Predict the structure.
Amino acid sequence: MANIQKRTNKDGKVSYRIRAFAGETPAGKKITKSMTYTPADGMTARQIEKAVQKAALDFERQVQQGGLVADSMTVDELLAKWFKEYAEPQLKTQTVSDYKRLLPRISAAIGHIKLNKLRPGHLMQFYTQLQQPGVRMDGKYKATASFIKKFPKGKRKALVAAAGVAERTAARIWAGESTSLHTAQKLAEAANVAPSKAFINTSKDEKLSGNSARHYHRLLSSVFNTAVRWQLMAENPCARVDPPKVEAADVQYLDEQGIARLLAALPDAPTQYSVIVQLALFTGCRRGELCGLRWSDIDLPAGVLAVNRTLTSIPGQGLLFSTPKTKKSRRVIKLDENAVQLLKDYQQWQLRERLRIGSKWGRTVEIMGKTVDNDLLFTKWDGRPIDPAGLTSWFPRFLRQHDLPPVRFHSL
């Protein structure tokens, strides 16, 4: 029930302050909304009492339906509410993590705008900004040749430890891949080298791709659709805006000759990576699906492989097993004789490795909230799940070393 307080002003006029509960913030703090009702001159005490009660009931109804919450709620506040009450309980952890990466640009552009003031023009301006040169906030920095030469393999470990950079990240940098400004600065400081001498900014004039810009439109459209259902907005402003244009991607892939050359080079690869690449060619599985495989997913006598889960690396949370990307991604794949023989040989190799490691091999593994026997196909040396990101960083280096076309792993 709304709270009503009678107030008498200095001039003797009477007004009534009405407060109503409007929910809680993401931090659990109560939100209240208030209004002031001033009776018209000449009203009797009975008329005033009825009018105040009606005003309180109407005001409380509006607040509970969301209409007046939206009058003061900003886009930033809506996003916080949407993530807490909708995204985190219902969407995949990877999807939530990917969406949260988009928040800084959204907050900077429209986060301060109140929902009842948000117009399609604000979104159009934001989308235009996204496709301007130099919009990238993350930045791409590559190590200079002199910096890489200064720290050959034997000298890198101490530098990486002093900088507090993950070994996997450092390996990518020395392989010629880009990194963030923050990581570049940490490595340069640890090496006592000026950042400008150690790293080159390769993204000064770089634009976001149309596909990346469209991710923002998809997120905002989903958030505003939910706000309409929650009666916080009358309509979704994204419905009145054309989404950023997406240019057709020029997908690079290996032809028959390229595949033959790749297979011929794989004996030089680590055993697990060699098998993963061959399985990608045989099955068309994604890297996370391959890294999430268990032997219980495979029936070698029948020659079939079931895709039941995927393994992803979530910033701040580590490696997580989850259900496949879509409903259709959960599938059973028929294996040909070559794939079956590949897996039989690999199974024997893994058994020998487990015997060699002995008691240090992890006997169980946590998969989607359950502790199960560790029968993962692909693991670290001690049986822990293998990081799919390591495969992604290794693959382009392997292609360069063997003079193969620079295709993405998923192009297999």
